[in-house]
Design brief:
Helices cover about 80% and strands about 0% of the residues. The N and C termini lie far apart (about 65 Å). Helix 1 packs across helix 2, helix 1 crosses helix 3 and helix 3 runs antiparallel to helix 4. The protein is built from 4 helices and no strands. It is mostly helical. It has one domain: 3 helical TM bundles of succinate and fumarate reductases (Up-down Bundle).
Length: about 120
C-alpha cells in the first residue's frame, strides 16, 4: 500500500472564499439553533407581563447582554444573507465560479458592515 502524506491540521489549508462562506453559514445556523430556546423564552417573558419588558431595558445596560444580543443578531443577519445567496444559486442564478466568488465576497462584506453598524447602534 502506498504511503501518502496527510495533513490533518485544518488551519494550514487555504480554503476558497466560497467554502469559507458555506462553512460560516452552517456555523451561524448551528448557533441560531441553540439560541432559539433562549430567544423564545425571552419573547414569552416579554409578552407575558409588561413589567418584564421594562426590566429588560435595564438588563440591556450590561455588556454581556449587549454582546449576546449583538452575536445573535449578527449570526441571524449573516445566515439570512448567505441563505439568500444559496437560494439564488439553487434557482440557477450565479452558478458560475466567477459569480460565486463575487457573491461570496459580497455576503462577507455586507454581513461585516451590518454587524459593525449594529454593534455601533447597540453600544453607542
Amino acid at each position: 500500500m502506498k504511503q501518502r502524506p496527510t495533513n490533518l491540521n485544518l488551519f494550514t489549508i487555504r480554503f476558497p472564499i466560497t467554502a469559507v462562506v458555506s462553512i460560516l453559514h452552517r456555523i451561524s445556523g448551528v448557533v441560531l439553533f441553540f439560541l432559539i430556546p433562549v430567544l423564545l423564552f425571552a419573547l414569552h417573558l416579554s409578552l407575558h407581563d409588561s413589567s418584564i419588558w421594562e426590566t429588560s431595558s435595564v438588563y440591556m445596560q450590561f455588556w454581556y447582554v449587549k454582546g449576546f444580543f449583538w452575536v445573535t443578531v449578527s449570526a441571524l443577519l449573516y445566515h439570512l444573507l448567505a441563505g439568500a445567496r444559496h437560494l439564488m444559486m439553487d434557482m440557477g442564478f450565479g452558478e458560475s465560479l466567477r459569480v460565486g466568488r463575487i457573491t461570496a465576497k459580497l455576503v462577507l462584506a455586507l454581513s461585516i458592515l451590518l454587524s459593525l453598524g449594529l454593534g455601533y447602534r447597540i453600544w453607542f
